[in-house]
Design a protein that fits this description.
single chain, 509 residues, mainly alpha, Rossmann fold, Helicase, Ruva Protein, domain 3, two-stranded parallel sheet, 13 strands, 45% helix, binds glutamic acid
């Protein structure tokens, strides 16, 4: 039997999680769950110079929000921990030493100044087979000199010795056979002077130690793949190497290239999953969550950026995605991001979602806006009345604030041109009728009865209902939108209806 499927998402905690990053998580997760496998979160934090406080927590929060919960992670633990590479520091040296012993790696003693000088001297300098013999390392120096330098604790890094004139290849699950000419690959640093591994060594060692069977990552990592394949070959054997899949990029909606945070700022939409507060700049970048996306919709739209099941179906629950997911239906080419389409997904999910559940999600947006909800059941009812018109959760504020408080601005300019004394008398009479209902103990009535009372009065005043509906709506809502006028009257109750009629009559007099 094949080994249990084990996949990993291995982010470096350096900032907010981009759409593309979350989609990488999603495809890992779906593949694992489809195959009854395990999904691991490993934090690749070996580059301490890029450490950003809060970034790891942000990643964990984002995964939790999306419902992509890892089976093993720094938070959840697991049998192959620690799951933070900085805490695994001591494990990597033996592999670097093994590479040195085998002749697949070497010590390099060049100082940062030496490297700078070389970069100045040689345009596009790369530490590779063309230049390595002109540098200060255990290939160019004699054994005695090297031993002496090591004995004196001279700082060094360990670099991979990329072989000359070889073809390195891998079978990518999405792209098929991909090959690289080693003459184009540089001698990457594997172990740094402080004993910390670089990403290249750590990713291979950890994928091995954590028994990863499939490694899925963004296409931007493809240029690093030859180094990883060589390390697999030298350390563990190519037959042990995980299967690779380099996922296509998410592209800008306009023009070419990868969708960037800057594109989002330029075009006014989020690119990160959740708000990201950057402690280095004190700037917050808006996220899909805070913009008012439902996690179900976010996951659904991400899945459709680069995958489909071969039919026209677009709406998927997580369970449906797990059941239907297969890598052979992941596209090779990048997918253009379309924000309008993203909002369409959210609107569809809002329509599908239970009103009770939506109420819990809308409430924080109301709180932020200072709209008080006295009766949770009333909020649930209102949500049912307006959800068809909402794309994003804050749309519930614009679509329904008039249910909770009188509109502060009344679009009288849309009423005034056709306003006359007859209409004014009509609304005064309507307010009276509604007041008498309150006096008789009726606070509110079903919409149909309120409409019947209204129509009766229209006939009595010899007016046309059509001419009165728009002014009435504007008096209640503030402007020309919202559900049926009498549904609104029923919901806000007669007392509030009367107050709003009277307020508008004052403005129009
Ligand atoms: N640490 C890499 C990153 O930041 C992971 C690449 C990989 O999955 O191998 O995305």
């Amino acid at each position: 039997m094949d080994a249990k499927v084990r996949v990993r998402f291995a982010p470096s905690p350096t900032g907010g999680l981009h759409l593309g990053g979350v989609r990488t998580v999603l495809f890992n997760y779906l593949f694992a769950k489809h195959n009854n496998g395990e999904f691991i979160l490993r934090i690749e934090d070996t580059d301490q110079t890029r450490f950003v406080s809060g970034a790891e927590q942000y990643i964990q929060d984002t995964l939790a929000w999306c419902g992509l919960v890892p089976d093993e992670s720094p938070l959840h633990g697991g049998p192959y921990g620690p799951y933070r590479q900085s805490e695994r520091k001591a494990m990597y040296k033996e592999y670097a030493d093994k590479l040195i012993e085998q002749g697949n790696a070497y010590y390099a003693f060049d100082t940062p100044e030496d490297l700078d000088a070389k970069r100045k001297e040689i345009p596009n300098f790369q530490y590779s087979l063309t230049h390595r013999m002109g540098m200060k390392n255990s290939l160019s120096l004699s054994k005695e000199v090297v031993d002496e330098l090591l004995k004196n604790n001279t700082p060094y890094v360990i670099r991979i010795k990329v072989p000359e004139n070889e073809e390195v290849s891998l079978e990518d699950v999405i792209r098929g056979h991909v090959s690289f000419d080693t003459n184009m690959v540089d001698d990457k640093v594997l172990l740094k002077a402080d004993g910390m591994p670089t990403y290249h060594l750590a990713v291979v060692v950890d994928d091995h130690l954590m028994k990863i069977t499939h490694a899925f990552r963004g296409e931007e990592w493809l240029p690093s793949a030859p180094v990883h394949v060589l390390l697999w070959k030298y350390l563990f054997g190519l037959d042990k190497m995980p299967k690779w899949a380099h996922l296509p990029l998410i592209l800008k909606p306009d023009g070419n290239g990868k969708l960037s945070k800057r594109d989002g700022e330029r075009l006014g939409f989020p690119v990160f999953a959740m708000d990201w507060f950057d402690p280095n700049t004190n700037n917050t970048t808006i996220g899909f969550k805070e913009r008012g996306f439902l996690p179900e919709a976010f996951v659904n739209l991400l899945a459709m950026l680069g995958w489909n099941d071969g039919t026209d179906k677009e709406m998927y629950t997580m369970d449906e995605l797990i059941a239907g997911f297969s890598l052979d239906r992941v596209h090779k080419g990048g997918a253009k991001f379309d924000y309008e389409k993203a909002k369409w997904f959210n609107a569809e999910w809002i329509k599908k979602m239970d009103n009770d559940k939506l109420a819990g999600l809308v409430q924080p947006f109301f709180d932020k806006e200072g709209i008080e909800v006295h009766d949770p059941a009333y909020l649930v009812k209102v949500i049912g009345l307006v959800k068809e018109r909402c794309h994003l959760l804050p749309d519930f504020i614009t679509q329904s604030s008039f249910y909770f408080k009188a509109p502060t601005e009344i679009d009288t300019s849309s009423i005034a041109p056709k306003w006359d004394a007859k209409k004014s008398d009509f609304f005064k009479a309507l307010a009276k009728i509604y007041s008498s209902k309150i006096a008789s103990g009726i606070i509110t009535e079903p919409a149909v009865e309120l409409e019947a009372a209204f129509k009766e009065l229209v006939a009595k005043h010899e007016l046309k209902a059509g001419e009165l509906m728009l002014p009435f709506r504007i008096m209640l809502v503030g402007s020309k939108f919202g559900p049926g006028v009498f549904e609104i009257v029923e919901a806000i109750a007669l007392k509030n209806t009367i107050e709003r009629i009277e307020y508008s009559l004052q403005l129009l007099s």
